[in-house]
Structure formats: C-alpha cells, structure tokens
Amino acid sequence: MTTEQLQANAIDEHVDAVTHNQLAKHATQVHKFGGSSLATTQCINRVLDIIRQNCQLNDVVVVSANGDTTDNLFALYQLAKEQRDTALEEQDPRPLEQALNALKQQQELLINDLLNANNARQLTHALKADIEQLTTWLSGNLAAHHNDILAYGELWSARLLSALLNEKVCPSNSIDSRDFLVIDNETHYRVDSAKSAAQLRQRKQFGKLAVITGYICRDEQGHTCTLGRNGSDYSATIVASLVRASNVTLWTDVDGIYSADPRIVPNARKLHRLPNGVAKELGRLGNPVLHAKTLLPLINQTTDHHTHLHVASSFDSEVIGTEIGKFGQIAKQELSVTYLNDLLIAQSECFLGEYCAKACETFSPICSNDKQGFMVINQSQQKALSQWLASHDTEVTFKPVGIIATVGHKVAERGDIKARFKRSLKSTKPLHLVNSDNAHSVIAVLTEPCTTELLNNVHHDMTKDARHIGLVVAGLGNIGQRFLELLPAQLNRVYALENTHLVGLLSSSKALINNDGLDVSQAMTLFEQEAQGYDHEQLLSWLSHHPYDELIVVDITPSEEFSLLYEQFFTQGIHVIGANKWAASSPTAHFNHLKKLSAEHNSLWLGNTTVGAGLPINFAIDDLRQSGDEINQIAGIFSGTLSWLFETYDGSTSFSSLMLDALSQGITEPDPREDLSGRDVQRKLLILARKAGFELSLDDIACQNLVPEPLQGLSTQAFLEQAAALDDFFAQKLQEANEQNACIRYVARLQYDDIAEAKLTAKVSLEVLPATDAFANLTPCDNIFLINSRWYQENPLIIRGPGAGRDVTAGGLHSDLVTICQQLANKQNQVKIKGIN
Ligand SMILES: NC(=O)C1=CN([C@@H]2O[C@H](COP(=O)(O)OP(=O)(O)OC[C@H]3O[C@@H](n4cnc5c(N)ncnc54)[C@H](O)[C@@H]3O)[C@@H](O)[C@H]2O)C=CC1
Ligand SMILES: N[C@@H](CC=O)C(=O)O
C-alpha cells in the first residue's frame, strides 16, 4: 500500500467512526450559512433556530463573514494601500481610523446584542487584540498580509456563533480552517485531502458542534489563502468531502435554484431536484447561486461517495429548497435558462482543428467551435489569450458578445428541445448555436447583450408546460386497482397529463413511494414486491418535502381516518381527489374548515365520484349555482347497490344472495351495511345539498336503516355469514308492494320551501312507488337525480345512468384528475422570495 492509500484508509476509519457515531440519529451533515444569513442580530437568531431544528452534535457548521464584513476589510486594505502610495505630507490617517472603528463597532454591536455579559466581555477582549494586530498589519508589510486581513471576517463570525451556541443551544467549538485545510495555491485550489482530513480530525471535538470558518485556508508554506469568489460555499463542500457527509445545506438568502434568475424572470419555477452535471453546467454559465467549483467535491471519484447538496433559505427555513445530486428520469427533464453578458468572442485560425482543444484546456471557454474557429471567453481572459496566441504567431479578433443558454440533462442531444430553443430565438438571430461538450446546454452567442425581455421570452417558451405533478394513490382495492389499470393509457393519450407522474401508492398498512416515479404499467406488482410499512407521521413528513410543483392525493379508501389527513394535505397545498365520502359529509364545522383551508392554500378538492360515481351530477349542480339558479328540490335514487337490488329482486332469488352478488360485482361499499343502512345515501344527499348551497349536517337528514338490529353490531365477516337474516323483512316488503301493484325503492328527498314553517326537509327511506313512477323503471344499478330549481320548475332536470361500479367510478376519478391537471397547467406562480423581493 502506498502512503497515500494508508492515509486514505486512516481517514476512512475516522470518517466511519464519526459518521456512525451511536449518538447521532443521521449521518454527518454540513450546514453553511452565508454572509446575508449572519448579517444582523435578527438573522443570527434565525440561524440559531435552524441549528436547533436541523443539527446534531456530529454535524459541522461552516460560516461566512457577517454581512459585508469582508468587503469592509477589503476597503480597509485599499485605504491603507492608498495611504501608503500618497506622499507623506498629504497623508490623512483619519479615513482609515474611521473605517477600522466602524468595523470594530459593528462587531461589538453583534457581540453585545447577542451574548451574555461574561461571554461578551471575553469576545470583546479577543476582538480588541485582533484590531491591534490589524492595525499593525495595515501600517506594516501590507501586501504580505492581504489574506490575513480578509480572514478576520470569517474568524469573528465563527467565534461569535460558536459562543452563542455554547450559551444557548449546545456545546460548540470554533475552528479556524487555516488550522487544517491545505491547498496547493490560489490558482487551482487543489486540496491536500489526506492532510486536511487528518488535521480536521484533530481539531474536531467529540460532543461539540464544530463551527468552521469558510473562505480561508492555508497553502503548503503556511500562508493564509482564500478560496476566491463564493469561497465559503466551496469550503462547505470541501469539508463535506473530508468528513464524507451525506448532505451539505447552503443556507442563503434565496430559497432554491430557479429555472431562471427570479429577480429578472418573475415566473421562474423552482427546480426542486437538479442532477449534478446539470447543476455544474448552470454554475459555469452564470447561475447566481451555484458555482462550478462548489460542486466539485460533491462526488469523490475514488470512493464514489456522493454528497447531496441542498440550497435553502435561512429567511424561510420551512420552504423546500433545491436538492442537487443523483436522480432519475423526472428530474432529468427539468429545463432552465441562463445568460451571461460582457463576454468576448475570439476568432482565430488557431482555434481550427486540434489547436482548439489546447486552447480550451488552457482557457476553459464558455463555448468554442473548432470548425468555425472561435471561442467565447470572459473579458478578463482577453490579455492572457492574446499573449498565448502571440506565442503561436496567429492573428485574433475580439468582439463583445453575450450568451443565452438552455440548460438541462443532455439537452444538446434532444432534438425537440433544441428546435424549441431555436424557435424562441428567431427574432434575435444569434451568431452561433453551440452544444456544450457535456451536452447539458445549448448556448446561443448573441451580438448584443442578453436583455431582460429576451430572457423572459425564451424562458417562457422553454418552460411554459414544465410543471411536474406528482400523483399519490391511496386505497388499492376494487376501484383503486381499476384506476391504476386505466392510468398508463390515460397518461399516454391525455395531453393535460403529460407531466404527471405516479410517485406513491398507499394501502392501509404499506406504502411505496419513489420521487423518481413508479412504472405505471407495473404499479400493483411493484407495490406487492417493494411496499414498506408506514404510519401517517412518516407519510406527512414525506409529503411536506415532495419535490414536485404540485402533488395530488387520490383517496380511494373508505377510511374516515385517512379523510382526517385532508387538513394537513390542504395546509401543505396538496390537492385531493376523493372517492371517499367521509370528508365531504363530515360535521359542518369540520367541512367548512376544510373548504376554507383548501381555498387559503390554493389546494383543489374534487370529489365528483362521491355521488353518482362517474355521472356529472356534481358538475350540473355547480353549474346551476354558478349561473345564478336556485335549487329547491333534489330527489332520486342515489345508491347503485340499492338500485341494483330492488330492480332485480322479484322474490325468486333471496335478497341476501343478491346482496352477496352485488358485493362481488364491486358496486356495494366494502361493508354492504353502509348501503343497506341508508348511510351511504344519507351522505350522498348531504354532499349534494351542500353543493346546492344548503348548510346542514347528517343529523338533519332522516334515515331509515334497513339492517335489522341484531346484524348491526357484527363484524363485516359475521354480517356476511348471517346475511340470510335479512330475507324475511324484504320478502314481506315486496309482497306488500306487489299487492298494491307497486314496487319498493330506496329514495332520497330534499325539499326547500321558504314559505313553510320547516323550510328544509330531507330524508332517505324505503318507499313504495307505483310501478309507473320515474324512479321505478331503472336499469339495475342506475342512479337517477331529479332537480327542481327556478329554471327547472315544472319540468325537472334529470340525470340518469350507472351510479356505481368499477369502470364508471375509476373513469370518474380520471375525469377529476384531468380537470385538476388542466387547472394546474394554467396556474402561474409569481416568485416571492424573502431576502430578494
Ligand atoms: N364501488 C363503487 O362503485 C364506488 C365506490 N366509491 C368509494 O370508493 C372507495 C373505495 O371503494 P372500493 O374500492 O370499492 O373499496 P375496497 O374495500 O375494495 O378498497 C378500499 C381499499 O382501501 C384500503 N384502505 C382502507 N383504509 C385505508 C387507509 N387508511 N389508507 C390507505 N388505504 C386504505 C383498503 O385496504 C382497500 O384496499 C370507498 O370510499 C367508496 O365509497 C365511490 C363511488 C363508487
Ligand atoms: N356503494 C355505493 C357505491 C358508490 O358510491 C353505491 O352502491 O352507490
């Protein structure tokens, strides 16, 4: 084994010990807080809350300097330099003294505001010593201490946060990253991982939350170095790779990565999950949050260890941010648009053919083309490139350009996306359209700077139909399975379902959830093979972090308990399609509360199958009311089961065997007593009454129970075994009706009369009807709904058709799904980000 391998093994052992610390609930995580997140007392208190809620002792916190401290230190350096360059007689020491004083006061303010008197005294003392050291450097060998001066920002920030944590949250120690992090130089920033990890291990104290300075490190000679622009993010991912963390969260002032810069494109969509390669490309092409070098340490090529990266807002820590890592197909479909201005296009024969590769190796251009002989570079590279070309004795021309690019997984290989991008640029006439080497972007080189208008237009064209909708199906019985059988064909043929993905399947005890999507054609098989036990807390926790623009739960359970989750679904903005009747027929206060919540959180709630299965009765009532009509009577046969039973029952076959037949056809409720008791019809009448604008509850609807008392308290199984006990009652009722040349039907009736004393009457009961009655001659299983209103007074509106059964109910649920997806497609979210807007 080489020394390097031995060192690497030693690190691995340490890392395993740290990551598998028995006191830790999860693997080590790194949390990095940016300058704006630590700018004021209020911000720092928010950071304390985030740490309280998200950290454990073996985690690592990496900090930037508070607010604009680094800029102020840099300004201090410049002032000192100017002073040095000024003739002695013209020197004025006051501006430097004032700036130094202001910096000191800023720190003192934070210290005194946040810490108790004792701790504040200690930190103020340390600060005083630092200011003395700063003063010495500013008046001494300035250039040699440039980085040492800048380093104070992170040093003070880490010291303060660590002291505060010790005082208020948990044991903590602050670590100066220069004591462990070693790089080769400030050009390549190559980290000596073995040495850095070993030194970090010595500094990290067991049982204390480490607060580490970002941005700064040392070179081999021991000089202070900085990690350049966005260096603290880079520090965080380096530290994560050293401790093999499972996750790094960059807590910043934006709440994620958007499909375009949300400060310029108000309709930008948040990208919840970004594949690593795409994130790197975005960083390379000007994304304001991601920087290409930050992402480098996330994948350890030797160990293949992947650290996930989260971008989240410290101003709104509850909001789901963006996760960067390794994902499946759905995340790979995401597209974004980015731009860069102030670039140069360099045209030279030297860039033709193989020389182009050499130039690219040296200059890492934004894009290049070895057939047309050009490279697009940053303006700052012009001089170096000219010199490089001069040594090759070739001519070069430079012209100012901008770029706009569409970025997404392998977009350069997707003909449809490229064609769309080209179309969106047609008014602009780009100079060139170039595929990036990794194929994750297509770059248009523009003769003029990219404007806000162009960025918004191209973004609109590229992302207008890119809302990803996750679908969770709860209840995999009779109707649930049919719903899933129909799903693959629906997803293929209905345009509105284009970006809808089945991501969850739930039975009462098991769940199968996959953010990368489930294969719809094998849904039930996958469920049987892979589903795991779950409880509602786990379900809600997953739902609160789902990575979709929208999430729809289709409730095809008969469960009251499941319907009680709607409250949390709506609070989280999740949409619900219910075949389950419990919520829509729950007590008035609860129902009104749910309606209010769903409206407040823009959650859509559809339940057309709760009454009449796939029949459009809910739509019809909604439509009448929306168009100003007033309904005063609703009546009919609302139960498919009771319709089938009473239309079929003629005494030749016993009532109980017909009931068992209806159960096996899938038209009854899972427990047929729900139908026979009249409760199912009672619920349906309540649901329609509420739709029609009446405020009432189940108790306001008189209900005749057809289940004999001795059968009422039995288990479902025992009831089915003793079902023959129903037969005498129904045989007698049938005989009595036949004697009057009539028939028996279970009817729902609601009447509103604003003159009568009891204005509203509602009941569901067994009625003896003349054989000629409209309710007496239905196809078995049909429902009939009769509505009287101001517009339908003499001649009622009638809707009739199959009101229960697998196909019509599953079909009705699909109709609800398409309706919701169509409505969501038109929903445009305007981005509102705390810290920006
Ligand atoms: N059968 C029909 O024609 C119609 C039925 N419906 C409604 O559809 C729903 C389902 O009916 P069926 O499929 O016939 O019933 P089913 O009994 O065949 O299936 C229900 C499924 O839901 C599951 N389940 C129960 N509690 C659950 C929970 N808490 N979480 C997740 N899953 C749970 C059960 O394990 C079962 O697999 C019922 O609410 C029913 O009222 C609505 C319109 C028509
Ligand atoms: N059991 C119900 C099913 C639909 O809601 C019925 O028979 O109507």
UniProtKB/TrEMBL annotation:
<keyword id="KW-0418">Kinase</keyword>
<dbReference type="GO" id="GO:0050661">
    <property type="term" value="F:NADP binding"/>
</dbReference>
<dbReference type="GO" id="GO:0009088">
    <property type="term" value="P:threonine biosynthetic process"/>
</dbReference>
<dbReference type="GO" id="GO:0009086">
    <property type="term" value="P:methionine biosynthetic process"/>
</dbReference>
<dbReference type="Pfam" id="PF00742">
    <property type="entry name" value="Homoserine_dh"/>
</dbReference>
<comment type="pathway">
    <text>Amino-acid biosynthesis; L-methionine biosynthesis via de novo pathway; L-homoserine from L-aspartate: step 1/3.</text>
</comment>
<dbReference type="InterPro" id="IPR019811">
    <property type="entry name" value="HDH_CS"/>
</dbReference>
<keyword id="KW-0028">Amino-acid biosynthesis</keyword>
<dbReference type="InterPro" id="IPR049638">
    <property type="entry name" value="AK-HD"/>
</dbReference>
<comment type="pathway">
    <text>Amino-acid biosynthesis; L-threonine biosynthesis; L-threonine from L-aspartate: step 1/5.</text>
</comment>
<dbReference type="InterPro" id="IPR036393">
    <property type="entry name" value="AceGlu_kinase-like_sf"/>
</dbReference>
<dbReference type="GO" id="GO:0004072">
    <property type="term" value="F:aspartate kinase activity"/>
</dbReference>
<dbReference type="InterPro" id="IPR036291">
    <property type="entry name" value="NAD(P)-bd_dom_sf"/>
</dbReference>
<keyword id="KW-0547">Nucleotide-binding</keyword>
<dbReference type="GO" id="GO:0009089">
    <property type="term" value="P:lysine biosynthetic process via diaminopimelate"/>
</dbReference>
<keyword id="KW-0808">Transferase</keyword>
<dbReference type="Pfam" id="PF00696">
    <property type="entry name" value="AA_kinase"/>
</dbReference>
<feature type="domain" description="Aspartate/homoserine dehydrogenase NAD-binding">
    <location>
        <begin position="475"/>
        <end position="603"/>
    </location>
</feature>
<dbReference type="Pfam" id="PF03447">
    <property type="entry name" value="NAD_binding_3"/>
</dbReference>
<dbReference type="InterPro" id="IPR005106">
    <property type="entry name" value="Asp/hSer_DH_NAD-bd"/>
</dbReference>
<dbReference type="GO" id="GO:0009090">
    <property type="term" value="P:homoserine biosynthetic process"/>
</dbReference>
<comment type="subunit">
    <text>Homotetramer.</text>
</comment>
<feature type="domain" description="Homoserine dehydrogenase catalytic">
    <location>
        <begin position="617"/>
        <end position="818"/>
    </location>
</feature>
<feature type="domain" description="Aspartate/glutamate/uridylate kinase">
    <location>
        <begin position="28"/>
        <end position="301"/>
    </location>
</feature>
<keyword id="KW-0560">Oxidoreductase</keyword>
<dbReference type="InterPro" id="IPR018042">
    <property type="entry name" value="Aspartate_kinase_CS"/>
</dbReference>
<dbReference type="GO" id="GO:0005524">
    <property type="term" value="F:ATP binding"/>
</dbReference>
<dbReference type="InterPro" id="IPR001342">
    <property type="entry name" value="HDH_cat"/>
</dbReference>
<dbReference type="GO" id="GO:0004412">
    <property type="term" value="F:homoserine dehydrogenase activity"/>
</dbReference>
<dbReference type="InterPro" id="IPR011147">
    <property type="entry name" value="Bifunc_Aspkin/hSer_DH"/>
</dbReference>
<comment type="similarity">
    <text>In the C-terminal section; belongs to the homoserine dehydrogenase family.</text>
</comment>
<protein>
    <recommendedName>
        <fullName>Bifunctional aspartokinase/homoserine dehydrogenase</fullName>
        <ecNumber>2.7.2.4</ecNumber>
        <ecNumber>1.1.1.3</ecNumber>
    </recommendedName>
</protein>
<keyword id="KW-0521">NADP</keyword>
<keyword id="KW-0067">ATP-binding</keyword>
<comment type="similarity">
    <text>In the N-terminal section; belongs to the aspartokinase family.</text>
</comment>
<keyword id="KW-0791">Threonine biosynthesis</keyword>
<dbReference type="InterPro" id="IPR001048">
    <property type="entry name" value="Asp/Glu/Uridylate_kinase"/>
</dbReference>
<keyword id="KW-0486">Methionine biosynthesis</keyword>
